[in-house]
Amino acid sequence: MINSTHNESEGTLNVTSAEQGSRQESWINLVVGCILLITTIISLFTNGTVLYVFFTRPQFVLTRINSYMAVVCLLAFTMASLGYPMVVSSSFAGYWLFGETGCVYYGFLMTCCGLCTMFILSLISVDQYISVVHRKFNEQSINSFSITAISGSLLMSLVLAVGPLVGWNKYVQEGLGTTCSLDLENVEIWSRSYLVTLLFVAFFLPVSVMVFCYWKIFSKVAETRRHLFAVYRSISISALSVKRHKNMNLEGALALTIVYIVAAFLLCWSPYAITMIWSIMSTTALPPLVTSIPSLVTKIGSCFTPLIYLRRDLKMRKEVMDTFPCLRSESEKVKPNHIEIIRVSTVEVNIVQTRTKLAVVKTKCL
User: Fold this and answer.
1) What DSSP state is assigned to residue 165?
2) Buried (b) or exposed (e) across 348-360, using 16+ Cβ within 10 A?
3) SS3 state at 204
4) What would the pLDDT profile of 343-361 be if each residue is shown by its tens digit?
5) b/e map 132-145, b = 16+ CB within 10 Å
6) What is the pTM of this model?
7) Per the UniProt record, which residue ranges are transmembrane (predicted)?
8) How far, in Å, CA of 15 to CA of 125, rounded?
9) pLDDT of 285-330, one tens digit each?
């Protein structure tokens, strides 16, 4: 009799614990669903607005940097329109609604678009590095490098995303069971090798490329400005002070933009990279909630990553405001001396170097 009562008590306790766990999970799914719904709306609006400006003003989009940004915004818009609604509806339902086929489709779409975005963001830094440091691209129009870079990014992303479809890892439900991604729990060598490849090719390599290129760009601009100031020091103290002030503004804005770019990339993708490293190095599975957070962060980052570039681009902001006057606020006053850091090109460096030569000639004449 005592044993029976004890068993009934244990059963009641287990049922109560299960109910509490279910309620907690339902609340988490509800919160995730609300966050993703807001993220989807913001992403569709921001990226859709930028894409509309791009495609309604073709004379504006025909530049190298804008061609990269158009692809980045298109990828973000694709994920927000064709992928995020699946997770939002599944989060509100509390389980994955679209079966195994939908899971494979969603995993492939997110992986392909996410990888392509990372590759293109790193290639923007390569393009600007070649333009500023080596002065190879004097024109702003689309050239063979930008076409090859975009095509290569798309092709590499497709190849890596197809891997799980042919048995090199696979797309499975992850985290709370309302989204799909790569299989991080499979301990087979073949599956782990895919994660290692993805980690180096799609994370460590792009980060290294961006840090190297942007540091070289910053160093080149700073060096050129210093040479100019050395010449002006022998000509005019007042001119020197003016140029020094402009130089400090340029270098400060450039450094700030570099921090924004690299920090945004790391914040968006580091959580997922850390999760992959844990899965590779450890046999202990992470809690469902922990594995869901990195995926959520990358989705949130897809709305804001293009804006980091566009917010620093005076011309792009002006085009958006001219196309959608309702977005212009009273405080939106464009400063004439604002520098478009994302468009750092050989023009700026060439102008500085030309002024330096003229100043040298003037000094000799005096």
Assistant:
1) G
2) bbeebeebbeebe
3) helix
4) 444 444 454 455 545 444 4
5) bbeeebeebebeeb
6) 0.77
7) 27-55, 67-98, 104-124, 145-166, 194-215, 253-281, 293-310
8) 56
9) 778 778 888 888 888 887 777 677 667 666 777 777 777 777 666 5
